[in-house]
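Honest question from a wet-lab person: if I give you the sequences of every part of a complex, can you actually get the arrangement of the whole thing, not just the pieces? Trying it with mine:
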Amino acid sequence: MDELLTRLRAGLPADALITDPDVTASYAHDAASFCEAGAPAVVVLPRTVEEVQHVMRTATALRVPVVPQGARTGLSGGANASEGCVVLSLTRMDRILEINPVDRIAVVEPGVVNAALSRAVAEQGLSYPPDPSSWEMCTIGGNIGTASGGLCCVKYGVTAEYVLGLDVVLADGRLLTTGRRTAKGVAGYDLTRLFVGSEGTLGIVVRAILALRPKPPQQLVLAAEFPSAVAACDAVCAIMERGHTPSLLELMDRTTLQAVNRLGSMGLPETTEALLLAAFDTPDPAPDLAAVADLCTAAGATQVVPAEDAAESELLLQARRMSLTALEAVSSATMIDDVCVPRSQLAAMLDGTTAIAAKYDLTIGVCVHAGDGNTHPVVCFDHHDPDESRRARESFDAIMALGLELGGTITGEHGVGVLKKDWLARELGPVGVELQRSLRRAFDPLGILNPGKLF
Amino acid sequence: MDELLTRLRAGLPADALITDPDVTASYAHDAASFCEAGAPAVVVLPRTVEEVQHVMRTATALRVPVVPQGARTGLSGGANASEGCVVLSLTRMDRILEINPVDRIAVVEPGVVNAALSRAVAEQGLSYPPDPSSWEMCTIGGNIGTASGGLCCVKYGVTAEYVLGLDVVLADGRLLTTGRRTAKGVAGYDLTRLFVGSEGTLGIVVRAILALRPKPPQQLVLAAEFPSAVAACDAVCAIMERGHTPSLLELMDRTTLQAVNRLGSMGLPETTEALLLAAFDTPDPAPDLAAVADLCTAAGATQVVPAEDAAESELLLQARRMSLTALEAVSSATMIDDVCVPRSQLAAMLDGTTAIAAKYDLTIGVCVHAGDGNTHPVVCFDHHDPDESRRARESFDAIMALGLELGGTITGEHGVGVLKKDWLARELGPVGVELQRSLRRAFDPLGILNPGKLF
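Yes, you can. This is the full assembly:
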């Protein structure tokens, strides 16, 4: 421990290290509930690539685990500290190095906040689409670590699709450059993509080249009320089957609507079973919105209300973005699931989730990236009640089992972390796990990078 | 050799093996010029996953190299046989197993021809965008192996972006399933993407889950003539900087235009230095086409002609698709390069290529996926003339060196194969090469999968 600090100090400015246990303890957890975490030995906040290299060389020499962190908004415990680890917080490496409108790329350090990048590129008529709910706080490095999604994915895809190239400090401190600044490139294996979603287990991202898009027109939102989640899912399937490309397609169940109203006085309809939001950001969204309204009505919608303007559209999106927070306020504790199924199985997934809530006698609110089939069931429970806590954990697992049964995945966008590592093996199967482990060893033979996560 | 055939026959129907040396020799090469190839010991044409597993188990037991092949339309020698290898041709595994318009996916075997899939999904109102020039012949398995591009990429991206999940037979015959049927998923490392572009060195793709899109409206093409390639590149940069999203943006130089006219009597303008084709496939392409016409004029275009209708647009695209074939007919031999640079560097790349042609006293025709910065300089030469052949090879290398100098990559979409393996190390650097090699070893410890390719 003394040797660790002495060695770290030799290559870092004094203000880059935090050793006060009260402060380091505050870096132990990300935003996931009920995930184990150890006490960090030290928190390091580097400002340069060389400082990160120094940290990794030191950690390799002393065989000390390193846990990289962004804003700790993650929902799977992937950034939780291990006992005695170095927490490597990249939040001070927060410079936007370049924005190039001709090449449509941005070059950034990992600590840049998602919203800061989005605003900076917007000033140049560009957009960086990935928009996780935590976009006002979360960092690009964290987004890359967990391959974050957001509301935009149904049209614009996930973070992975916007990462063109990376500078990565490897476990032993060497600097690796992957990928490209170009629109295309197939020189060798796609290491860039391998790092995206690797949850800090393969290396430390210290610079990223990101693809940008032209800023689309402001989206217009339509809200449709349905008497059942199944009817809303029928509308979702019809919308996608008819070839529409909404810029978002989101579903909130009654529990979620009530929770949002309680938290934000949003005036959402509380008697409807499922509210579907569909938006288009094309130059002329009217034909699509009209067609979608008809499809909703045909699927049984009782009310179909297009937003009057961009401001009203934004208000509906705010309500949707507030959903997880609102559901968290329903009870003393929550567990947020992230199961993604083929969208043709979405109705079965939601029906099954309702059945699971009944079986375990729990409130489970559901908000859904419906266009992606990505459900976020939020299990609400009283963590002072041991029996209810047990039922909560069991229902959480039952939801993942159902997702796998329906051809889905245990995590659409939140990652595995520690929360779902027991489940990852079930999804990947033995051959997959063995290969993934051998990949991890190829990058980190000593096992010092974010140990205990993923597998 | 006898033991190899005996063991292979034990698990394969008689008609799945070809041993006649005259016939097996015809499987030795893909479509790349001047790439080494050995004589295959046997060509195997399996119809089932189990047969592929049998081949790989046999090859592992006997330490025999296996070279997977699709339609052998590749342009880098990546499918060339090694001496004494098993050529594993996947062309008979050509079933489309599923097309699902709600989930917007297709499930296919690797031998499905790109055009066959495109036509099958079009019947259901869907599109599979990746469209390499060889799309009427090349297979999806081959497209996945080389991460193929095409004309569509400037708007729709490359093959990699459409591969959601894979079944892969590993070197030792085990079956690995990667990825998902869902729109999103972040469970573990992205092995799917690692296989895309791996040129048959990590495993044998036997099934793929592909993402589809709604079929867009027929695109309308605008043709603009420029007095110089640099002026055309200025227009390209302006078009992208202003936030347009063309469905294609292609450039042909005068050598290419003349070659296409000679081959196909297409009536292209032969006195212009650079012809730029821009297309839009939006519901109302008129505003974009008008704006692009203005930008072309401002950049110095001497003629700007929008196609009258879809038929005329299709004719222009045919001319573009014919370019490589037409340039190949210019001389007794050609080498086709595939350098991709940031599009802001495209003018410098084309200027530099002209200078290289002058320096080496050669004809080099250039057609360009201009929106991607992906140039295909075609070095034309007489391969009976040793000095001209030497100069051709040197100019080919000079073009790659220039591409790297301009921040580009040695291959935008054709792959490394044997043609560019000496260059791959220059692009990746020593740390990158070492990691890539260790990945390869993790998948193929005996080194039997397509040896001698990539590295």
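Two things worth pointing out. The first strand of chain A starts at residue 17 and ends at 18. The radius of gyration of chain A is 22 Å.
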